[in-house]
Amino acid sequence: MTRAATRRHFRRCAPVCVSRFLSSAPTQPKAQSVNFLIDNILVVAVAVLSGAALLITSLRGRAGAGVTPAEATRLVNQRHAVLIDVRAPEDFAKGHIPQARNIQPADLEQKTTSISKDKPLVVICGSGRDAAKAALTLRAKGFNEVVVLAGGMGGWHQAGLPVAKN
Q: Among residues of the chain, what percentage have pLDDT more than 90?
């Protein structure tokens, strides 16, 4: 095919090809998106729930890593970690980790001012849930290394470690 013939062919076919392309292009992308969501509501619901689960997991991770009783003991012995027990005073009096300070979650802001921000903190509660909330508060207050005792006092008892009583 010569150059002139190619030009003539293109001039004849180009308008037809362009019109076919434009007619097949979506005219309402928003409507198609809405239709896709409606047609695939189950897939969308699973995606949203998965995202929420990931978000919750990542927020819990910010509370501080969980350490075993053996790791907590090592932190106290080697790095002079401060033990903060956030249980009720009655539970603390029944038995607590030696050297632990009993500070209620509501008093964390005021009663931790004397602790260096660079010292590791081990937060303890009955099971580990309340300690995670307290760890978030301490992190927000500027403490660099805050960890939660995995299993709380129950984990400490199971490990057979010493308990002091008031």
A: 48
The two three-digit tokens of residue 104, written as one number: 């209620």
Separation between Cα atoms, residue 9 and residue 82, nearest integer Å: 85
Low-confidence winner among 9-23, 67-81, 90-104, 140-154 (lowest mean pLDDT): 9-23
CB 147 within 8 A of CB 122: yes
pTM over 0.85: no
Where in the chain are the domains?
A: 64-158
Which range among 9-18, 79-88, 108-117 shows the weakest confidence by mean pLDDT? Answer: 9-18
CATH of region 64-158: 3.40.250.10
Containing H/E element for 47?
A: helix 41-62
DSSP conformational letter for 107: G
Catalytic: which of 63, 125, 135, 153? 125
Q: Read off φ and ψ for residue 13, nearest 5 degrees.
A: -90, -25
Q: Is residue 17 flagged as an active site residue?
A: no
Residue 85 near residue 96, CB atoms below 8 Å: yes
Mode of pairing for the β-strands spanning 66-67 and 82-85: unpaired
